[in-house]
Specification:
Number of helices: 10
Largest sheet: none
CATH superfamily: Hypothetical protein af1432
Order of helices and strands: HHHHHHHHHH
InterPro entries: HD/PDEase_dom, HDOD, RNase_Y/CdgJ
Organism: Marinobacterium weihaiense
Shape: globular
Helix content: 55-70%
Protein name: HDOD domain-containing protein
Number of domains: 1
């Protein structure tokens, strides 16, 4: 997610977002899940047993089982660590696509929310479709447009074709980083 977020932040489409901020937001967006795993791992068992294939399903399972979500826990953790409000708000609202249209949302937060929401959706898409490298660029772009891009973003322009061409390199960089960290799927 962080690598996809940086790629998007470096495009002219999102000139208000610093790539470093996008990277940090990509790393921290699910902070609440890690806090919950550390503090109460047994509480998460029910959310994982229910199974979920998309971010919206995870939020629903958490809310139903626990009465709260990892986004709320993550925002509390951000505040406790005195992280900037921008990052705290990303952690809190990264599953709320409608938040980008709120009249009080500043352009930087709006753009960063779209970046993180898109990167999150794309990461779910890639994980659910391991055959994505076999698709030609136009087919992959079309699938991303229909399965990842949210209507709530109000027709925002995304550099999808550029991203599709860069995805093999981004994916390879992620695999390499996972290898260096000893993280495997």
């Amino acid at each position: 997610m962080a690598q996809i977020a940086v790629f998007l932040a470096r495009t002219p489409y999102f000139s208000t977002v610093k790539p470093e901020t996008a990277y940090m937001a990509g790393l921290l967006h699910d902070l609440g899940r890690f806090v919950m795993l550390q503090v109460a791992p047994d509480a998460l068992k029910d959310t994982d047993v229910r199974g979920w294939g998309a971010a919206e399903e995870l939020i629903s399972a958490e809310q139903s089982s626990l009465g709260f979500t990892h986004t709320v826990v993550g925002q509390m953790a951000c505040r406790k660590m005195h992280l900037p409000a921008l990052l705290s708000n990303i952690v809190r609202y990264h599953h709320h696509h409608e938040a980008v249209r709120h009249p009080k949302v500043l352009k930087e937060l709006r753009d960063l929310l779209i970046i993180i929401q898109f990167a999150d959706g794309l990461s779910f898409f890639l994980a659910a479709n391991p055959d994505w490298p076999e698709l030609d660029a136009d087919a992959l772009k079309q699938r991303i447009e229909t399965e990842v891009v949210s209507e709530a973003w109000g027709g925002v322009r995304l550099p999808l074709l550029e991203l599709v061409h860069a995805l093999p390199m981004i994916y390879a960089d992620c695999e390499s980083a996972c290898g260096m960290l000893g993280i495997r799927k």
